[in-house]
Automatic annotation (TrEMBL):
The keyword Cell membrane does not apply. The keyword Nucleotide-binding applies. Pfam families: Pkinase. This is Protein kinase domain-containing protein. Belongs to the protein kinase superfamily. The lineage of its organism: Eukaryota, Metazoa, Chordata, Craniata, Vertebrata. SMART domains: S_TKc. It comes from Gouania willdenowi (Blunt-snouted clingfish).
Length: 353
């Protein structure tokens, strides 16, 4: 058993102290685990503050250096304003690099498992925040490369509904350093140019965000996440290549056994407007605006994909498609996302302690 496994086997969850020169943390529970190591929910000794400590494996030293470089680059941004996770400090413990982050609530994947799906009113503030994040990353020429529901977390669902932050910059890169043939992004959220080994830019993050927003709306992945071949076939059928009804029927019958039982297949993004039957005129307009934004985010040609700045001016985000219609007044009031300030974020932080 390697040293990493021994270290975690020896953890006594409620009592282990991680010491640093001037501070110490008590592990309350482990809340995440992956190829990188583990994430622990910790209390800062001497206070009620709660933080998340990411304990990295020793054998991924090169990856650690890369992630630290990315975190240093985004550290010049205001984490609350651009909706990225806040890094407090870095220290070494028993030969392991430990990263201390702000404690967040729950990721969007787990949230949707509980809620099934979200209405467009709830999706709008999430979309707006993440578009602002992509806009900031574009300024730094950084591509996150792993935008998916698991990597977006709610700050505090009770006190700040649908306020989110993007996490996990371990796979992020400066897009001018990208190499052809590299496998970036999770299957189901992978842009076609990445899958085909073509040159790519920061627009692959817009693709990932489009898939994420579709997931929030549907309650399941827009494209298959367990098979790259099925993902590509579904992508082609849904987004652009024209098939006759007969051709589609033959393809679908041959591959029907491969589709997840709980997944509905769409032959066009326009089908998504009618996923939920009950809706008023204003909500119908809002859904159509949402689907129009998705179409622009999910263009097969990355060069033609909408940019974050353009997307922030889209009617779905600005709600201009509703503001000029008197019949939409009640719906508009419900749909208007509340603004969030750093004071409110600080207040929510205090509520967690």
């Amino acid at each position: 058993m390697n040293q990493f496994k021994k270290l975690f086997k020896s953890y006594i969850v409620s009592f282990l102290l991680i010491y640093i020169f001037y501070n110490a943390f008590t592990i309350l529970e482990f809340i995440g685990e992956g190829a990188f190591g583990k994430v622990a929910k910790c209390q800062v000794n001497g206070s009620n503050a709660i933080v998340a400590v990411k304990i990295l494996k020793q054998e991924i030293e090169e990856d650690v250096e890369h992630e630290l470089g990315m975190l240093e680059a985004i550290g010049q941004l205001n984490a609350d304003q651009v909706h990225v996770i806040k890094l407090y400090e870095i220290f070494q413990h028993c030969g392991h690099t430990c990263l201390v982050f702000e404690m967040l609530d729950i990721d969007l994947f787990q949230h949707c498992l509980n809620k099934n799906s979200l209405y467009v009113n709830a999706i709008r503030p999430i979309a707006k925040q993440l578009l602002e994040t992509l806009q900031a990353l574009q300024y730094l020429k950084i591509v996150h490369t792993d935008i998916k529901p698991d990597n977006v977390m709610l700050i505090n669902m009770k006190y700040l509904p649908y306020r989110v932050k993007l996490i996990d910059f371990g796979k992020a890169l400066h897009y001018y350093t990208s190499k052809l043939g590299g496998m970036h992004q999770a299957v189901g959220y992978r842009a076609p140019e990445v899958t085909l080994g073509l040159p790519f830019t920061e627009s692959i993050d817009m693709w990932g965000l489009g898939c994420l927003l579709a997931f929030l709306y549907l309650g399941f992945h827009l494209f298959p996440v367990h098979c790259e071949h099925l993902m590509l076939r579904c992508m082609v059928e849904t987004l652009g290549m024209l098939l006759t009804k007969k051709e589609y029927s033959i393809i679908h019958k041959k591959n029907a056994q491969n589709w997840p039982r709980n997944q509905t297949h769409f032959t066009s993004l326009d089908d998504l407007v009618y996923v939920y039957e009950k809706m008023g005129c204003a909500e119908m307009k809002d859904r159509k605006a949402f689907i129009d934004l998705l179409k622009k985010m999910l263009r097969l040609d990355g060069a033609k994909r909408i940019s974050p700045t353009e997307a922030l001016q889209h009617p779905f985000i600005t709600m201009s498609h509703l503001s000029h219609d008197p019949r939409s007044r009640d719906y508009l009031t419900e749909a208007q996302p509340a603004s969030v300030t750093e004071v409110e974020i600080a207040a929510s932080d205090q509520s967690q302690t």
